[in-house]
Write a structure and sequence with these properties.
The chain is mainly alpha-helical. The chain is about 80% helix and about 0% strand. The longest helix has about 35 residues. It is elongated.
């Protein structure tokens, strides 16, 4: 009974060491391949905007362009004076 329990404990410890070794080797391989061993999270792909949001964004951009054109026109007439 004690022998089988010890064998089970040693098997678990051996498995943990094997996993630890695999993780270490993976980190070393990634460091050699990329020059960095840091693990970064990649942001998910952006979701496409619904049509209503696209229209609102286009309208806001058009208002901003119109505002910039008006500001340029106003500063152009001030410089001509």
């Amino acid at each position: 009974m004690a022998d089988s329990l010890l064998n089970a404990i040693f098997a678990v410890v051996d498995f943990v060491f094997d996993v630890s070794t695999a993780i270490d080797r993976t980190k070393r391989l990634s460091q050699q391949a990329t020059g960095s061993d840091k693990i970064i999270e990649v942001p998910p792909d952006p979701k496409p905007l619904p049509p209503a949001a696209q229209r609102a964004l286009a309208e806001a951009e058009e208002r901003e362009r119109a505002r910039e054109r008006a500001a340029q026109a106003a500063s152009g007439t001030d410089q001509a004076s």
